[in-house]
User: What shape does this take?
Amino acid sequence: MIVASFRQNSLQRVKVGDEAEVSFTGIPGTIFKAKVKQVIPVIPEGAYQTQGALQTVTFDNRSGVLAELELDDAVDAYNLPDGVSAQVAIYTDHFGHLAVLRKVLLRMTSWMHYIYLDH
Assistant: This one.
């Protein structure tokens, strides 16, 4: 299961079946095709229990909207453990001509994983 977090305004036009691409950090130079399976409902940021600590105004990735993706390509051959990181791009009909730029950027990022090591 692939679940990606996006800011709420990024998912305004995303619908089930939209085309997506995934680039795993541990598999440099390879892009996997995917489709949006579902957009997971949002848990409002105001739904915190009182803990005696002040809330910060910084962006927290966990407060974004989650989209579940279904991979078209098999990644089973790569033996990826649960919880690996990836970069995800979802392509909608809105500003479709800009999708080419996003595809190029995703591939460039994927190629960078050959030379950049996270130690």
Summary: Residues 99-112 form the longest helix (14 residues). DSSP finds one helix and five strands in the chain.
